Amino acid sequence: ATADIDRIQTDWVKLLPADFAPPLPADTLELSDQEWRRRLSPEAFHVLRQEGTERAFTSPLNDEKGRGLFLCAGCELPLFSSEMKYDSGTGWPSFFTHIPGTMGTKRDFKLVWPRTEYHCVRCGGHQGHVFSDGPAPTNERWCNNGVALRFLPSA
Q1: pLDDT tens-digit series, residues 12-49
Q2: What would the DSSP string read from start to end of 12-70?
Q3: pTM (2 decimals)?
Q4: Strand 85-86 and strand 78-81: pairing?
Q5: I want to staple 140 with a disulfide (CB 3.0 to 4.6 A). Which of 2, 58, 87, 134 is the partner?
């Protein structure tokens, strides 16, 4: 099972379309609030830059079943592959693992109990929260706001 996760975390590059060169995690993107507001929809700005949460069952990406990659909507860094996605029943796109080196985390106490918030390492955009109630073998549920992602179909 661990070998499968290692393969999934490595093979995501095979899903890259030939005409897409992904940015590197270390190629940080820092913009002013005004620049972010021009670049993002109001909903995406609220989630990515203000750590907001979209309503459950509102994102079309929750039902996305295609082969491809889920990119940060703020900076296009690949964060997840379609192989990592599963239906958690929560109403948000959920993943049992992520592409290594793409996420930063911090403790979040916004809702009485502590949670682990995660964000894109390239632009700092808030993505969601990770929980320990996901499927084996990782037991992780990376619960993502759909508006914080863009789906890039595989070629």
Answers
A1: 999 999 999 999 999 999 999 999 999 999 999 999 99
A2: GGGGS-TT--PPPTTS-----HHHHHHHS-HHHHHHHHH---PPTT--GGGG--SSEEE
A3: 0.94
A4: unpaired
A5: 134
**What's the CA gap between 83 and 56, in Å, rounded?**
22
Residues 6+ apart with CB under 8 A from 133: 139, 141
Strand partners, 129: 117, 143
| Mean pLDDT, each 10-residue run in order, the chain (155 residues) | 88 95 96 97 98 96 97 98 97 97 86 84 97 95 98 93
| Active site (annotated) includes residue 72 | no
Contacts of 147 (CB under 8 A, 6+ apart): 41, 43, 44, 47, 48, 54, 59, 73
Q: What single DSSP character describes residue 1? A: -
Query: How far apart are alpha carbons 38 and 122 in whole angstroms?
Result: 18
Which residues are CB-contacts of 86 (< 8 A; sequence separation ≥ 6)? Answer: 94, 95, 96, 134, 135
